Amino acid sequence: MASLNVGNLGEFLREQRRNAKLSLRQLAEAADVSNPYLSQIERGLRKPSAEILQQLAKALRISAETLYVQAGILDERDREDLLQVPAAILADSSISEQQKQALLQIYESFRKENAQQRVADPPSAASAE
Fold it and tell me: Which residues form the HTH cro/C1-type domain (predicted)?
């Protein structure tokens, strides 16, 4: 896994914010972060947590995985793999819609927990083989 790529992440966030026609202040308010903090993220000066990335993704109406990839928390290949699981759950005709939604919620909660853990405790270069 790569280290947090905050420069490219900041540029990407700024581009997404502008595409959504939001001011820095509007996005900060929608994502429940301070205006100066968001500005520092956009300028590549701060490393946001997975939780903050998730809040920003929700406010921008983009997937959190997209931001995780941009931040280097998640590889593009991992993202593609992640999309296969929900698709398989939704395509399974042997389970009810309610069961599908329950499985998707459980899966999503595990992914969020693991992403937050990866940001809080990134693996060292020696342990990554």
Answer: 13-67
The token pair that represents 90 in the structure block = 């939704």
DSSP 32: T
Give pLDDT tens digits for 75-107.
766 666 666 787 888 888 999 999 988 998 898
Q: Are residues 88 and 106 in the same domain?
A: yes
Specify the 3-state DSSP secondary structure of 70.
helix
Q: Does the global pTM surpass 0.90?
A: no
Residue pair 8/129 in contact by the 8 Å Cβ criterion: no
101, 109 Cβ separation under 8 angstroms: no
What pLDDT was estimated at residue 129? 43
Please tell me the distance from the alpha carbon of residue 67 to that of residue 76, in angstroms, as a whole number.
11
Residue type present at position 114: N
Helix, strand, coil share of the chain (percent; to 5): 70, 0, 30
